[in-house]
Amino acid sequence: MVNESKRLAIWFFFIPVAVAVFDTAYYIQFNVTSFLTADYALFLILAVLIGLFPIKTDDSILFLVNGISLPVLVIFGLVPEMIVSSIAIIFLMIRSDIKLDQHYRYPLNLLMFYFLSIISAGFYYLTILLFDSVANVIVAILALTVYMFAHLFFNQLAMYIIEKYFYENSEAKVFDENLIFSFYSTLYVIPLSFILIYLYEMTGTMGIIIGAFPFITVTIGSNFYYKSKVHNKYLKKMNQFSQELNAKKNRESVIDMFIHALVQIFPSDALSYFTVENDYLIRREKMILGTRDIIDTDDLFHLSEQSILKRAMTSDTMLAHGYAKDWKIYCTNDLSYHAESALVMPIKVMDRTQGIILMTHNTRSMYDDMLVSLVEVFHKYFSIALDNAYHYEQLEETAEKDFLTELPNLKGLSKHLQEIKEGKTIVQMSLIVLDLDHFKIVNDTHGHQSGNEILTSLAKRLRDNLNETIYVARFGGEEFIILLPNYSQEAAFAIAEEIRQLIAATPFEISDSMQSNQKEEISVTASLGLATCKDDWIDIEELIHLADRAMYIGSKQKGRNRVTVAQKGS
């Protein structure tokens, strides 16, 4: 944003500088003819029409007013040409919805075009003076060409200086895509300007009317061309990101990539991602300002019925607004950044709205029908990728979970151990291997169904009574592994004893024993092996091996229903 001192400085210097520039223009122009005529008014109307149909690019607005200002310079002089350019610029900025807080852009752009007019006219007059001995037609075409390319080059240089030093944009470039487009459009405009001058000299007022049609045609055609070019660029980027989205296997990464892709592909000054708490409460969890990285947030928003976020949720449709007054007043919480245009899209997973994305831009009416339609297409790709990630997560969760006890199985345990290794936050690790005693007798006596009931009850008993930081997995059969990260050997032994008593002291209820076909209570005990290691030699596989040996040799072979502690080398 431009600070207040710069805004005021532009207005402060505008009037004296403008007067000085017009005074200079009056004295350097070749021909001084009366320009308050109907013909001049037609040129002025043509320039205004060109200004009302600008060519919008991603980061600037182009228009072909130099094609009209040049004939005015040749026919009426430099001062009339500057007036035409000024009025066309004013209509261009009005058409571009320059906001009140950007009022400084009026004097800034007018001053830039005043200097462009003088510099370009200087090159035009200099060319005529240097080649006055050459045939008139050749000199005229040469002078027109020099004027156009001088205007093109110094316009690009002026925009670079303003972007670099006034707006303090470190990424500003002299040679960019806009310069290339302006170069080719200039090649079209030069002959059109020459034809307009020739028609006016030959037929007068009718020549202006006839010559106006090619300018309007080129302006409209350039608009269509650039929109098509931008459209193709959007589609190319969308295709690239869509492939990357489909490669993601979890919802979090899909959402992160999608919101980052939105601000990279489409014009956006800010983006907020909300999760839905209930029908009237949402939580902003992520935010992007400009095209920078994702910022994690935790802001609650209470929604009114008129809120566009609420309407997007209930209608399940994408909503777009071009003016802040149409939507921002109903967002009761401050968004903490300025916004004019807004685009809201609901996020659904398996036909349920779980989130909302609000993408905004400081420019009014930024999200036109073309942009909205493209975002809708990209949003469909995202929805498919999100559903696929959800199914993949469900499949992974099922594959990593024991069907009977709903505890992690060997695959889930392996994944958790890998996360522990990569996390590097464990300074010591204690591990318990638990095996139920004489469980084969239970299965043989009461049936495997009863055995399964005991295993299920044991898993629930462990989950309900152990701390959340303690990880329990089914190792296979009636054997379980319990991980105690950052537990000392003494603390882990106390937990192991608690587990042993938790099993031995309370019988397990079975509902359908093979012996009696009635509910029974069965007492079961367990043997446990415990191993602990420090961070200088944490090796989970070796720890499991030590705890397993301690359980079999130290607990099973010495009477069962006990805890045995293993040491490295035991």
Q: Roughly how much helix do the residues carry, as a percent range? A: 55-70%
CATH fold-type name of the largest domain? Arp2/3 complex 21 kDa subunit ARPC3
Instruction: Sum up the overall morphology in one term.
Output: elongated
Q: How large, in whole angstroms, is the Cα Rg? A: 38 Å
| Number of domain modules | 3
CATH class of the largest domain: Mainly Alpha
Mean pLDDT reading = 84
Q: What structural category arises from helix and sheet content?
A: alpha+beta
Largest sheet: 6 strands, antiparallel
> What share of the residues does DSSP label as strand, in percent?
15-25%
Q: Ends: how far apart?
A: 69 Å
Helix tally?
A: 16
Poorly predicted segments: none
Overall CATH architecture of the largest domain: Orthogonal Bundle
Protein name: Diguanylate cyclase (GGDEF) domain-containing protein
GO molecular function: diguanylate cyclase activity
Organism: Alkalibacterium putridalgicola
Pfam families: GGDEF
Summary, kept brief:
This protein has 16 helices and 15 strands.
Describe the protein in words.
This protein is an alpha+beta fold. It has three domains: 4-232, Arp2/3 complex 21 kDa subunit ARPC3; 251-393, GAF domain (Beta-Lactamase); 410-565, Reverse transcriptase/Diguanylate cyclase domain (Alpha-Beta Plaits, 2-Layer Sandwich), CATH 3.30.70. It contains 16 helices and 15 strands. It has helices spanning 4-28, 38-52, 66-76, 78-95, 105-130, 136-166, 177-203, 205-247, 251-265, 308-315, 369-399, 410-423, 439-446, 448-465, 489-504, 540-555, and strands at residues 55-56, 61-62, 270-278, 281-289, 295-302, 319-321, 341-349, 352-361, 428-436, 471-476, 479-485, 508-510, 520-522, 526-534, 563-566. The strands form four sheets. A six-stranded antiparallel beta sheet has the order 5-4-3-8-7-6, with helices on both faces. Strand 14 (526-534), helix 16 (540-555) and strand 15 form a beta-alpha-beta unit. The radius of gyration is 38 Å and the shape is elongated. The two termini are 69 Å apart. Keywords: Membrane, Transmembrane, Transmembrane helix. InterPro entries: Diguanylate_Cyclase (IPR050469), GAF-like_dom_sf (IPR029016), GGDEF_dom (IPR000160), Nucleotide_cyclase (IPR029787), Rev_trsase/Diguanyl_cyclase (IPR043128). It comes from Alkalibacterium putridalgicola. This is Diguanylate cyclase (GGDEF) domain-containing protein. One of its GO terms (molecular function) is diguanylate cyclase activity.
